[in-house]
Design brief:
By secondary structure, the chain is an all-alpha fold. It has one domain (3-132). The protein is 73% helix and 0% strand. It is built from 6 helices and no strands. The protein has helices at residues 3-34, 51-68, 72-91, 98-101, 104-119, 126-132. Helix 1 (3-34) packs antiparallel against helix 2 (51-68), helix 1 packs across helix 5 and helix 2 packs antiparallel against helix 3. The longest helix has 32 residues, at 3-34. The protein is globular and about 55 Å long. The relative contact order is 0.16.
Length: 133
């Protein structure tokens, strides 16, 4: 078996791994804002009804849905949009280059979520289990 055959066989599974890991990593943004886990000083006095507070709720709910693979395409599309908005509100005004405006992570999440929205959840997901029934 050559590398191409192995890569082709594992690609759907790795899509599931990408979705799960992106969800787990993204979950930290919401938990830091609302549960103070981990503690991030700039979120110490965050108000629920502020823009970052509402984003935190979307981050928590969206991440959990993404991790289990439920409503994956819609969830990933919403999260992609959230990250695009976050980039243009919080990062782009600080300068053009993402490496200088601290927007690399927001931009990367935006495109990872957009890819997941297009590619779907992969085989290890609640959505895939529902299709089998």
């Amino acid at each position: 078996m050559n590398f191409d055959a192995i890569a082709t066989a594992w690609a759907p599974r790795l899509l599931s791994v990408l979705r799960i890991m992106a969800g787990l990593l993204f979950l930290q943004h919401g938990t830091a804002k609302h549960f103070k886990i981990p503690v991030v000083p700039m979120f110490a006095k965050l108000e629920l009804m502020s823009l970052p507070g509402i984003a935190g709720v979307i981050e928590i709910v969206g991440s959990l849905l993404l991790i289990v693979g439920l409503f994956t395409r819609t969830t990933a599309f919403v999260l992609s949009g959230l990250m695009a908005v976050a980039y243009f509100i919080a990062h782009a005004p600080r300068g053009f280059y993402p490496i200088l405006n601290a927007g690399e992570l927001a931009a990367l999440y935006c495109f990872v979520f957009l890819y997941i929205a297009a590619a779907g959840p992969g085989p290890w997901s609640y959505d895939a289990m529902q299709k089998k029934k």
